[in-house]
Specification:
mainly beta; seven-stranded mixed beta sheet; globular
Amino acid sequence: QVQLQESGGGSVQSGGSLRLSCTGSGYIYRNYCMGWFRQAPGKEREAVATIDSDGSTSYSDSVKGRFTISQDHAKNTTYLQMNSLTPEDTAMYYCAAVGSWCDQLLFGFRGQGTQVTVSS
C-alpha cells in the first residue's frame, strides 16, 4: 500500500520560508512522479510542483521562482522549499504520487496534508 507522510508545515510571516518534507514507500519512490498540491478553503486544488522519475521538475506559475522541489533518494523523501511566502500561499499542502504522467498528479495517491499559514 502506498503511504505518504508530510511534515514541516506551520505559520510564518509574509516573506518567510518553510520546507515541507514527504516520506514515501520505496517501491513508489523511484518509479512515480512525486509532487505537491495545495488547497485553500473555497478554492480548487492546485498542483504547485512536480518532480518526475528522471528528475525533471515543473512548477505552477503562482510559485515559479519561489518554490523548489527536490528529492533525496537515500531517504525516500521529497522536499518542497518555499521562499518569499505570501498570504496567498496559505493552504493545506499535500504530498502526492502518481504512477503515470505528472499532469495526472491530482488523481494519484496523497498524504494527509500539512497546513501552511502565512500572515501579513
